Every structure is written in C-alpha cells, then in structure tokens.
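Shipment paperwork, digital attachment
Item: protein structure file
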Amino acid sequence: MSNFTITIVGAGVIGTSLALALKQTEDPPRLIGHDKDVSIASKAAKLGAFDKADWNLINACEPADLIILAMPLNGVRFTLEAIGPYLKPSAVVTDTCVSKQAVLAWATELLPEHVHFVGGNPIVQTTGVGSENARADLFKGRRYCLTPAPSAHEDAVQLLTGLVSLLGAEPFFLDPAEHDGLITAVEHLPAALSVALVRALSQQKPWRETQKLAGGSFERTSAAASGDPDGLAEAFAQNRPVLLHWLDQYLAELQNLRALVAAESDSNEALAQHIDAAVVARLNWLKEYQTGGFIDPELVSQKVEIPGFFERLIGFGGRRKRQGDDK
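Attachment content:
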C-alpha cells in the first residue's frame, strides 16, 4: 500500500465506487472514508472500500494528500469551510458535483493558498444512491470532467488526470462555465421534467388509481425526481439562467408536440415523423454512449500504469518551494 492518503467525504454510491476502484490498482493509496452518517461510512469500510472510516470530518481530512468531496452540492460549501484551515500544505481537493462554477467559487474563497483545487464530475450511470450499489468498474470507459482552478499547480492537475486514468475513465477538460451550460441540459433539465411530471399527475384527483397502473415508462421518466430535495434545489438555483433557457426550449417543443397531437387528419404521418426523429437521435446517442464513441482516439491520454504514481506526488508543493519556484 502506498503512503499517499486519499480521504473520500461521502460514502454513497459514487464515493464508495471511487474507493473500490482505487483498491484494485497495483499500488493502492491509503483510503479514509467519512460520511455525516457514521453507519454509512462504516458499512462501506466493511465492504472493503476504505482502510478506515472516521466519524470526525477534520480528523479524516487532516492527514490527506487528496480529498474527494463525493456529496450533494448543498453540502460542499460547509465542508470546505470546515476543513480548509486544517489541510496540510500541497493538499489537493476535488469534488464530484454537477455544478462546477459554484464549487470553484467556494473553493477560491474558503481554501488556503497552499491547497490546490481541481473540480471533477464523473459522467456515470448509477443504479442507486447507497454504498450497496457501488461498483469498482463504474467509471471504466466513461468520461470524467475536470475543471481545474486557475491557480491549481500543474502537479495537482497531473494528479487528478492520473487518478481518472487509474479508474479506467477518460479525462475531459472543460471551462467551469462551459461545463455548467452543457450539463444543465442533460442533468438539471431532466430532473426538472421529472419533478413536473410527478407533480402534474400526483396533484390530480385520479392519482389514487392512476399510480396503480404506473410501470416501467413512468419509473424511467420520473427517476430524476429522487434524492436530496435541498441538493436538487441548490443545483437548480446555481444554474438558474441556463436552466431557464432549456426549460423555454422544452416548453416550445411541447407546444409543437401538442399541436401535432391536436391536429385532426386521416393520417398520423407528421406526428410519426416527429417522434421518429427523436427515436433516431436517442438511438444514435445511446450507441455512442455504450461503445465509448464520444472519445476521440487522438485525444486519449496515456494510461497511468507506473507503480508508485501516488508516491511520486506526495508533498509536491514542498518540493516546488525548495526548488525556488515562487509561482
């Protein structure tokens, strides 16, 4: 085991999957898990994900070379504020949230200058939220967005790039604003639509009987209306202008669909063509997603397979200072 210590704050499906994947590397780091629910972190440790589950947030983060915040957006600011004064020089902090501008702003405000922040967002498909749904191969063949802070040292960026490679994922660098604009369309908009769908049906008098007939289609379409309501509300608010834009686009498309459904004619050809365009677009996306077709072979980074990768990056900030680099 490497002497490099990684603390993962949040032992849900993402945090535990990260730990399980790192456990399978040739020279795994020391892994500490923390969750606000002590029993959740302990359960993940019993699964073999963590070497230690620490109930105290500060104690868990203080010895870490890398801290990964695998938690909802609404818990990130408090956590950064709490751990900032106790992080050791050259420590690196990253997250897994879908909103990058907000987290970067908090990190810039709350973390000391000797700590480096590199935002992250793994583009994965989970089957649940608890550690029992964690998988070591969750990130394999998937894109992992990285949005480094402008002040992040190049070794901090290299650390996260290497980490992503060790997970079997592909690093995908984006500007935080660009990331949030794109991700709102495919993460926050579907969540908003799920909320609207559930409310539109459940607020009506027939819901008592309607819900008895709800099956796979309703389950799939409403799935994004789940999880932490406060976290989802925070994500909506942080991306308000872009989300409003996409909601307007969706409302316009609903009006087009309504007009086609309302049109009385002997043929449903126009309606069928409208639906077919959506079916084809989804099938093309699904094929690319499942086969990794979105990854450009010319841009694939070299996989990290060198033993001692984490060891080589311990204390990089101290080495940089000794070498007289004042950047």
